[in-house]
Write a structure and sequence with these properties.
The protein is α+β, with helices and mostly antiparallel strands. The protein has 16 helices and eleven strands. It has a five-stranded mixed β-sheet with strand order 3-4-7-6-5. The protein has a two-stranded antiparallel ribbon with strand order 1-2. The protein has a two-stranded antiparallel sheet with strand order 8-9. Helix 5 crosses helix 7, helix 10 packs antiparallel against helix 11 and helix 11 crosses helix 13. The relative contact order is 0.10.
Amino acid sequence: MILYRGQDLTSLFLKIPKSLTFDEKILLKEYYSKHERGSFEEIINKEKILPFAACVLTHIGCDKEYWTRKHDLYLERNRKIKSIVDGVFLEMKTVGSETLTLAENYGVVLLSNSCLGCFCSGDVDLYADPSEKEIIIKCLTDMGFIYENRSGRVTNYSEQVSMFFNPNKLNDGFWINILWTTTSRAFLIQEKYNERLAKERISAKQIDNSNIRVLSETSLMYFCALHIASGHYYTLSPGLRLYVDIDRLARAVNIDWDLILKWVDEDEAGIRVQIVMYIAHKLFKTPIPSKVFKKIFNSRRNRIFINYLLKSDTMRIQSKSSRLKRLYVELASDDNSLFISILKRLRYYLKMHYQLRTSM
């Protein structure tokens, strides 16, 4: 959190530089002028937003040469990541994988043709169908990636995601996460999301001059929103960086918002997508039509929930976590009474338990 005059400025340092208003640029320059460069760099390193802030500072003319050099280091690093990911897709094509698809974050960077330097994660996420699990694991291990099974994190975690680390890629090694479901979370009922994802992978787009496949624009926006809402409970780590995906996509490509709302109804997604869009619109001024999120304010329960996630007067997001708080967020996102949401999950887990017993 970067606090100044009672407000969190983090979202401003994450914005596309050309989307900053004149007043926002003045505010950032004022904040920057009150810090030694070294102490400021410590702040943005702590918030893990250095390449984004470097891009903004270069644009608004604050120590331009220094921050350009900092940003260029990430640009060079991320070109290597693109080469790594392209090589993975090429090998997967060789072994017969047809469902591997680049997911949010780095997928958004490539599909929206955003600044390649504005990416600082140490991993990339890819979707794939569980039917290809065996060949994908073998292919990645043959490429020097080490398979790590973290099955203890949530129930059936190893069935939801497989994680691979290659210590010889980049300076600190590199992670690739294969998501076999929409997201890896304990409380989420995601059967309909998974069915949607399986359909959308078929029509994935290929990034120009590469072997990399990524979900189409509207589909990627939809699953980015679900990932933020369900995978990170809207505002948990890495916090506001999550909303960069929504902002970059909305500004760079054409999104079929009516189709997204249709999917929300069909998949019984509650208010998850709408809340994500509202937070992006509020914090980043992301150009999202109000019809996408305005209905959520018709309910007092929803207004209380949104105020829990985001204090609109200070632009601060809720960042504390506990199992009980995560459960509350998941249940409140259903847009039903808590009793109905709890009952729905009990039925689901009883069904899963029965299927597991009968299959043994």
